[in-house]
Amino acid sequence: MAKTEIAEKILKHSLKILPKQKSWRRYLHTYPEISNQEFETTKYLITELKKLSIKTKRLKLPTGLIAEVKGKKPGAIVAVRTDIDALPILEKTGLPYQSKNKGCMHACGHDMHMATILGVASMMQNMRDDFCGTVRFLFQPSEEMPPGGAKPMIAEGVLDDVKMIFGLHVDPHLKTGKIGLRDGVTMGSVTDFDLIVRGRSGHAARPHHTVDAIVTAAEVVESLQKVVSREIDPIDPVVITFGKISGGYARNVICDEVLLVGTIRTLSPKAAKEVPKKVKRIAEAICKARGAKVEMTIKGDYPVLVNDADTNKIIRENYISLFGKNKIEDTPQVLGGEDFACYLEHVKGAMFRLGVMNKKIKADKPWHSPEFIVDEDALHFGSSVITASVIDALARFAK
Predict the structure, then answer these.
(1) Which CATH number fits domain 189-302: 3.90.1570.10, 3.40.50.12780, 3.30.70.360, 1.20.1050.10?
(2) d(CA 262, CA 276)
(3) How much is the pTM?
């Protein structure tokens, strides 16, 4: 079948299943689950894939799964990945299908990702006679919580024999109907860490008999910002952020232990290795000077996300063939992290941005906002371009 005929078939089927995709998305949005607790989400995905007559396989992990669709003849394996977890956020959208799991919300669009990929699975199953090879769908848990779900899935062999992998992420800064692409370094590395500062407690009126963990921890936080301003090349972006500080008992008791919960973001693999060492060195030096001790624990890390130019070219060409020119924008580099980067360390692939912004329905709030809303019509664009790109990639590997 000619490429134009395949494109027409994809667009026709994509519009046909769009209502179903919206129902998938709304169910998943209503019942979100946080990282590594996506038990009901996993069951639901298995049920819906079986309705499509698609075989599924559980891994040696508490949640998540893979599924495969085989073409008319053997060939290469191309993978498509979606994350499945939500965030610990109290939803404030007021939608009729607002989260019923209080304090948990799909505020990053993973419900859209799942509905998009279920749509791709449906179309690939419908178009088995139009391609040779296998499409492997990865439904990955725990993207939002380092160390994440990508590495355990890779250890389970989900990338065995895979030639290329495709991923997507919704973008509330792009209008519906547009996608964003960037070759090379696109998203930052993530190194999440904890610092425990230990001092010696005592009476608030007798500080000279104690080692104040709060004062010492405050000095550590302030001094570590100088790593960014004085120990890193100014053209190499680095961020050190502390999102949580906890410690202390009462206003008249000097604290003996403080927990600092932080994250390091970079766009350089070299900086990703060096900055944690600098954090440890400075924290230890300050604490030693104040008579305190410190313990640093790395809680998880994601590498820099580096998109493959050849994969992006496939996405770009197929999006143009489906929806015309002037629908693709350059994705800016960001320090947000994504463990899709782990897959890209092993196989060629790329993650594109799917526009979901529509101000008429207030779908313009940032990721992780309790008022985050998406334009569901974007499902049509996402599923169509991934399906076309996967078929194209399989054809290229068959040559």
Answers:
(1) 3.30.70.360
(2) 11
(3) 0.94
